[in-house]
Amino acid sequence: MAKYQVFGIGNALVDKEFEVEDSFFTEHNIEKGLMTLVDEEQQMTLLKALEAKYELRKQSGGGSAGNTLYAFSNFGGEAYYACKVASDDTGDFFLEQLGHHNIDTNISRREDGISGRCVVMVSPDAERTMHTFLGVSAEFSRADLDFDSAKDSEYIYIEGYLVTSPPAKAAITELKKFAEDNGVKTAMTFSDPAMLEYFKSDVNDVLGDGVDLLFCNEREAKLWAGTDDFDAACAAMKTKAKSFVITRGPKGALAWDGTQYVEIEGNPVQAVDTNGAGDLFAGAYLYGITQGHSAATAGKLASLAASEVVSVYGPRLAPERHEELLAQVLGNS
To answer: pLDDT tens, 153-168?
Structure first.
């Protein structure tokens, strides 16, 4: 039996969230709904503009795979997280927020530099728009991977954002091949529509011959497949993923379990912040299937958890809430 159910790899970031009006995007020439990479000076300029007009709504640990593994571990899964954090206050805060609850990491030594930060702007429709300064995460490379731990895992989980950095892209490509050669299942998330709009060829390089499990939302699926037709996007995805889940916001999600489609119902809530919804969905779904549950049960847990996180600010739920959601779903299955 593998030591870890999931070995995840991603950019370690601390999120700073602000509620903004749509006019702010126009005033500052920001593309709404996407993640944009910026340098430190650009991010600081944006932060000053935000702080002059709005209050900081929430600061929390972030990063797509970090959020996913935080949820996965709080549901009860055993996880390993490979990332890069500097020895600064931001890095301290990130690790404190990660919690190390059933999560082992590669962060035994931290180097000088600046840890990654993400400025999250939440508009009135609850959509999240992000400007990310990667800091030392931009230097993530194969030297930051623990191949022994990856080999002792049921799944490796790759964050799509990593394709933006050449050394990180090389590292996840090598890790994926290593997993395939050693009988470890592969899972990947597209992470953000921007990855398909601006880095599609890099995403496809990593995707290679395909993965065992793929996560994305409807917009990402259509961008990747190059079609506005949802059914056609699903058919295209079958050529690269043995199983997949496409989230569809309030409409829930559609899963392909390798044999059949599984409709996953949404949970109507008043959304205030969609930041982290897809990450939490993936963490809950991964927990469900690694515990032997069906795509339907895993999807039910994931949909419920995602609906909870969009109704609060920040990308994560309180640790104890995971247990309550799990009991609610398994008690009703």
So the answer is: 999 999 999 999 999 9
